Amino acid sequence: MKLSSLMFIVLSMLYANNLYAAYGEGGKQFHKTMKQTQQQARFVRKLIKVSSAAQKVKASEDINVQSLYRAANDLYQNALVYIDAGNSNAAAQSLFYTTELMFRAVKLAGKQKIAEDNNHRIFELRLKSVNALLKALQRIGKIKGVEEKIDRIKNTVDAEINTAKTLMKAGKAVGARKVIDKAYVEIKTAISGLRSGDTLVRSLHFATKKEEYLYEIDRNDTHKMLVTLLLGNKMKNPKIRARVQKFLDKAAVLRKKAEEYAGKGEYGKAVKMCEESTKQVIRAIRSSGFYIPG
Fold first, then answer.
1. Beta carbons of 83 and 37 less than 8 angstroms apart
2. Residue 104: count of CB within 10 angstroms of its CB
3. Using CA of residue 32, residue 4, residue 73, residue 14, what is the dihedral sign?
4. Which residue in 63, 62, 61, 74 sits closest to 101, CA to CA?
5. Quick one: CA dihedral 267, 269, 270, 271, positive or negative?
6. I want to staple 119 with a disulfide (CB 3.0 to 4.6 A). Which of 64, 95, 96, 173 is the partner?
7. Nearest-CA neighbor of 127 among 92, 163, 88, 94?
8. Structurally, how many domains does the chain consist of?
9. Is 118 within the bounds of a domain?
10. Among 96, 113, 130, where does a domain finish?
């Protein structure tokens, strides 16, 4: 009867444990008959050649996984040589360590797959946010009558999105995220400029704390506008709205404190409160499923 891959692996592990118990710490040999050793060899061959575990390991691009797999194959070939020579104990030992190395390779490949899946999920979330924000920018541009300017920004962002996708396909997740985050910042800056009517990029070198406070207020207003632009439809869902509103309420309290400090001329404290307020707005947006840098 044909064994499933899962059953095969379980039986292989049980067999390996039995071999280990036979070998022990005292240097005893694997007291197995040639028939038993040949049977294990068939199990191990399936494990390293045709099982689902083997396919997972072969598909891995991790050099450590491949090193373990090559070592497992070498030990398996050694076992076959020992079987041909009639040395069942040496063959059984090689088969035991073949199985052990293969399980290590499978475990490591599994961790790599989880990491890759996480990278793709994070990238897709960021890409979704950039595309939503880009559509919002186009709507604002149409209202403001600056479609030509927005088209130039869109062309730049589209090129960056394509670059990010290419990097992801090449397995360069960190580089891809940097590019997609850069696109996000460019769109957000453009939206801020359209909102305020200021087409200049503000400097991050401030002459006074008051000037820095005014910058942070503008940044806070821009992020609050993003809530409206990005979360319009999502806020119709009561659960999402409640989750988002919790952060927005905190943001409103902090914004009020910032304004109170500014009214007293305490701009250093006002800047800190405004920054904390913006962080809460960013958390509100992220809690809805949109990722934005911050």
1. yes
2. 17
3. negative
4. 74
5. positive
6. 173
7. 163
8. 2
9. no
10. 113
Domain ranges, residue 239: 202-294
Instruction: Give exposure, 55-83, as e/b (b: 16+ Cβ within 10 Å).
Output: ebbeebebeebeebbebbeebbebbeebb
Residue 61 tokens read as 């691009």
Helix, strand, or coil (residue 264): coil
pLDDT at 269 > cutoff 90: yes
Return the structure tokens found at 183: 């696109």
Residue 166 falls inside a structural domain: no
Does pTM surpass 0.70?
no
Paired tokens of 221: 């207003």
- Is the Cβ–Cβ distance between 274 and 258 less than 8 Å? yes
Question: 58, 92, 113 — which closes off a domain?
Answer: 113
Separation CA 227–CA 229 (nearest Å): 6
Q: What is the pLDDT of residues 184-215, one digit of tens each?
A: 888 888 887 776 554 334 445 778 899 889 88
- Give, as one character, the DSSP assignment of residue 200: S
Non-local (6+) Cβ contacts of 130 within 8 A are 157, 161, 180, 183, 184, 187
Residue 92 in domain: yes
